[in-house]
Amino acid sequence: MAKEISSAVPEGTKQQIADTLVSASFVLHSGGKTVTEFAKVVVGDSKVDASIEHRKEDEKMIGANGAFGEAGACTSLARAYAMLLDQGERDNAEELKKIALGRFLKEHFTGEVDKVRSGW
User: pTM for this one?
Assistant: First the structure.
């Protein structure tokens, strides 16, 4: 079960995690609510709400969400997963992985994690 991220994690990193998770939740045509709820538990309502507002503004500037399909959501989830692991948040990372694997093939998700880890 997801839990609030450690207070030792820098605020900027928490916001990056929120931004990445919100990005994924906006692209997923179904299942986005689960990602948003996970994000609110892990980084808090205020960070997620700020990310949602920024994303809405971005969409006004660049067009409709989902323009690149749901593959971008897998990349965003992989990025958030890697960031959580980097911060020592293994339990939350594993919870997020369960969410991702409920939506994407394991090979696809782990491939995206590998790409993120390699700096892609």
Answer: 0.76
